[in-house]
Structures are given as structure tokens and as C-alpha cells.
């Protein structure tokens, strides 16, 4: 079987939008694979926003220390291979095929009854666990896919559980209040396993505190048990101090945005909570190496700057606006935006008022965007002279100044692929 055939099978036989809450299927699948997720230590990272960034920082610091590290992310931007990494190197196409072919007979067996048939995310999660076991990793850093309690990654017993932030997103699945969402995300808290959080909202913290107390889990909260202090913000060179169990001064983070410095604090506290030995050199080197594609990422092409940010909920949009004001204050900016139908479109758009000189609404290259007309109508409520250019590549090529591309990770990934390679790879055509 070829790599693209495997992806075609995963995307169509097990469509990405088909969510199957519950841990029964992933547990059964992993059991038939020999429970590979029990062969190495893990760190489990969830939250509404910031979990991918924290996971990347944690992973890079561990790699700099010399650990053999598996890392699991979702979703991917440009290539499926981004999801599963060894020492932050993407899994090869050959290994994707090899791992899938190992699992294929078991999947065929489970598919005989719909109730046991694993979803796309469950299959990919199992692929990651099996790959990490075969590569003999020392530790795996796992980003939660959706929520926490019923997420397929929630079969591990980690060294530390981390909930970076709690905000409104995926309300139909997780609930419509902060308390409900916090409860779902707190499902990753395990008995006597420390919990680290960068959340400040009282209503979310109370839920986490209640769950942590019942689980006899020590909880570490930003500004209470650890803190960060911004020293200077400059594109790709953001300096800060960290104070927790240890104190580090003048750390440098290449990820941009004040929220990323807070994420760095969460990452450092997560590592402290694990008890793993780490040198200051590894911490400094790992933070410099850390990057999260498509999150306030700056790219240049043909003399023009693009700011790519996959903000797809109001909290993410708010962080993007704060960063734009800090790094590009007063500079004329264009906005190219596309938002999926199932997102909180109106509240996202509202965050961007008064910032952009030109606003272009475009189509997200995803079947989850069917209703473009209502997005255009909403945009006209908040911006004057809204333009519509359905093709994202035409949209970015039409701008003449620094351009922000946002609203969806699918859109950011598509544009990023074109900006970095000059073409759209075959995976987008599956």
C-alpha cells in the first residue's frame, strides 16, 4: 500500500469529522496491539488554546536534554506526517505505511461490528502509540485532540497532566458554559498525578480544583505556584524570566506573542512537576528551538510579509489581536479570513474590528465550510468594504501589504503550504 492510499483510507473510510466519544474502542484496539502506550512515560497536555505550543516546548526541551521523545499533535496543517514525530522529526511516509499495515488486520476485525469500529482519530492515536513503542522512545508528549475526558489520548497514566487554558470552543460536544468545558477537560486528571494550568478564570479553576482534590492530585496554578515576567517582545526574540521551583532569567523564546510566554511558563512548570532531571542549558536551547506552525507564524514571500494564525475561536482571536498590536502597532495590515460553519463566527469577527485596512473573506478548503454567504454577511456587520475572493491563493496574492491569514487551521495550512513550497501537495486532493 502506498502512503497516499493509506491517507485516502483514513480520510474516507474513517472520516475526520466522525467523532465517536468514549474510550472503549481505543482501549480495545490498543489491547489487540499489545498496549504499546504502556511501554514509555508520557506527559498529557490539554486545553482550549495553547496546548500544541506547550507540547512543542516540552518536547523540544526534552530532546535538548538527550531524551528520545515521541510527540503527538492534532490537527496537522500541511501534511499528515506533522501529527506523529520522533525527536520533533516528522514520521516518514514509509513508516506511516508500515504502521498502518501492522494494524490493518486488527482494524478489519474490529470493523465487522460498527460498535467496535474505531474512528479516524482513534486509529491515528493508536498509530502514534505503536510508532513510539517501535522507536523505543523514553517519553511521549501527547496533545489532547478534543476535550479530554473522552479523548482517545486519555488512556495513559502520565507523569503530569496539563490544562493550558479553558475557553468556549466545540460547545456542542463539550458544553456551553466554562464550568462544563472545564469539567470535560479535567477528565485527563489522574489519581495522584500532578496538574498544571495556565488558566485564571475563577469558574474554571474551581472545577479543576474540585476534580484534583478528589483525585489527590497536586495542582499548580499560574501566578500562584509559578509565574513569568516579560522582559522584551521582539519578533522571534522574546525575553522573559521564569519563577517556579527553579528560577531562570532572560530566557529567549522564538515563538511570538505574550501568550506564548505564558505558555512557556506552563511548559516549564509541567516539566518541573514531572521530576525529570533537566539542565538549564537544555531549557534554554529547547525554548529557542520550539515552534508551533501556523500560530502567529511570520513568513515572507516576494517581499511581502504574511502573519499566519490558526485562531478559530474568540479566545484565540483575542490573543492574535493583542500580538498584532504589540508587534505591528500602527502598521497597515490586510486580513484574509475564512471560518468553518461550526465555529463562533460572529464573536471571532467582532475581535478584529478597527485593526485592518482591507478585509477579504475567503473559502476554507474543507467540506466543513458550506455556508460562505452567511460569513460574508456577518463580516459586513463589522467591516466596511468587505471583499470576497473565494480562492485563498488569489486572496493572498491580491494584497499589497503585510497580510494576516486566520480563522481556520485548514485555511492557514493550505496557504502555508503554498508560501513554503510554491504548490499544494497531493494530500490536499484526497
Question: Can you describe this structure?
Answer:
It comes from Thermotoga maritima (strain ATCC 43589 / DSM 3109 / JCM 10099 / NBRC 100826 / MSB8). This protein is of the alpha/beta class. The strands form 3 sheets. Strands 4-3-2-5-1-6-7-8 form an 8-stranded mixed β-sheet, with helices on both faces. Strands 12-13-17-14-15-16 form a 6-stranded mixed β-sheet, sandwiched between helices. Strands 9-10-11 form a 3-stranded antiparallel β-sheet, with helices on one face. It has 2 domains: 3-289, Mur-like, catalytic domain (UDP-N-acetylmuramoyl-L-alanine:D-glutamate ligase, 3-Layer(aba) Sandwich); 297-429, Mur ligase, C-terminal domain (Protein-Tyrosine Phosphatase, Chain A, Alpha-Beta Complex). The chain contains 15 helices and 17 strands. Helix content is 40%, strand content 17%. The chain is globular.
Describe how the helices and strands are arranged.
Layout (H helix, E strand, L loop, with lengths): L2 H11 L10 H9 L8 E6 L4 H15 L3 E4 L11 E3 L2 E2 L2 H18 L9 H15 L4 E5 L17 E3 L7 H4 L3 H8 L9 E3 L4 H13 L4 E3 L5 E6 L5 E6 L3 E7 L4 H17 L5 H10 L7 E5 L2 E6 L4 H14 L6 E4 L7 H6 L7 E4 L10 H11 L4 E2 L3 H6 L5 E4 L2 H13 L9
Parallel strand pairs: 1-5, 1-6, 2-5, 6-7, 7-8, 13-17, 14-15, 14-17, 15-16
Antiparallel strand pairs: 2-3, 3-4, 9-10, 10-11, 12-13
Helix pairs in contact: 2-5, 3-9, 3-10, 4-5, 7-8
Amino acid at each position: 500500500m502506498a502512503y497516499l492510499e493509506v491517507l485516502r483510507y483514513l480520510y474516507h473510510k474513517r472520516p475526520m469529522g466522525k467523532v465517536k466519544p468514549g474510550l472503549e474502542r481505543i482501549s480495545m484496539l490498543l489491547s489487540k496491539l499489545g498496549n504499546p502506550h504502556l511501554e514509555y512515560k508520557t506527559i498529557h497536555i490539554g486545553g482550549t488554546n495553547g496546548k500544541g505550543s506547550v507540547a512543542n516546548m516540552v518536547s523540544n526541551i526534552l530532546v535538548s536534554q538527550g531524551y528520545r521523545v515521541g510527540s503527538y499533535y492534532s490537527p496537522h496543517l500541511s501534511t499528515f506526517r506533522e501529527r506523529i514525530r520522533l525527536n520533533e522529526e516528522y514520521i516518514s511516509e514509509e513508516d506511516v505505511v508500515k504502521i498502518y499495515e501492522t494494524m490493518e488486520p486488527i482494524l478489519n476485525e474490529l470493523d465487522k461490528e460498527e460498535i467496535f469500529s474505531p474512528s479516524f482519530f482513534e486509529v491515528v492515536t493508536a498509530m502514534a502509540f505503536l510508532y513510539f513503542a517501535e522507536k523505543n522512545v523514553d517519553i511521549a508528549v501527547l496533545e489532547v485532540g478534543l476535550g479530554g475526558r473522552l479523548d482517545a489520548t486519555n488512556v495513559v497514566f502520565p507523569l503530569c497532566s496539563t490544562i493550558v487554558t479553558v475557553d468556549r470552543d466545540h460547545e456542542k460536544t463539550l458544553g456551553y458554559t466554562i464550568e462544563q468545558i472545564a469539567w470535560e477537560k479535567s477528565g485527563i486528571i489522574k489519581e495522584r498525578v500532578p496538574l498544571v494550568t495556565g488558566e485564571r478564570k475563577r469558574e474554571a479553576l474551581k472545577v479543576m480544583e474540585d476534580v484534583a482534590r478528589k483525585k489527590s492530585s497536586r495542582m499548580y496554578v499560574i501566578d500562584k505556584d509559578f509565574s513569568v515576567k516579560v522582559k522584551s517582545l521582539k519578533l522571534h526574540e522574546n525575553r522573559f524570566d521564569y519563577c517556579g521551583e527553579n528560577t531562570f532569567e532572560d530566557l529567549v523564546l522564538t515563538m511570538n506573542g505574550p501568550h506564548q510566554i505564558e505558555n512557556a511558563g506552563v511548559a516549564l512548570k509541567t516539566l518541573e512537576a514531572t521530576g525529570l532531571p533537566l539542565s538549564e542549558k537544555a531549557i534554554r536551547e529547547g525554548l529557542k528551538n520550539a515552534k508551533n506552525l501556523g500560530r502567529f507564524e511570520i513568513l515572507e514571500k516576494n517581499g511581502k510579509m504574511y502573519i499566519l494564525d490558526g485562531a478559530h475561536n474568540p479566545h484565540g482571536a483575542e490573543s492574535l489581536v493583542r500580538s498584532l498590536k504589540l508587534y505591528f502597532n500602527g502598521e497597515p495590515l490586510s486580513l484574509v479570513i475564512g471560518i468553518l460553519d461550526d465555529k463562533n463566527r460572529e464573536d471571532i469577527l467582532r475581535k478584529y474590528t478597527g485593526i485592518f485596512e482591507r478585509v477579504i473573506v475567503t473559502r476554507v478548503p474543507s467540506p466543513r465550510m458550506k455556508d460562505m454567504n452567511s460569513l460574508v454577511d456577518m463580516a459586513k456587520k463589522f467591516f466596511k468594504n468587505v471583499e470576497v475572493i473565494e480562492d485563498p491563493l488569489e486572496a493572498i496574492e491580491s494584497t499589497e501589504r503585510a497580510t494576516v491569514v486566520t480563522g481556520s487551521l485548514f485555511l492557514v495550512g493550505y496557504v502555508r503550504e503554498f508560501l513554503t513550497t510554491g504548490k499544494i501537495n497531493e494530500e490536499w486532493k484526497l
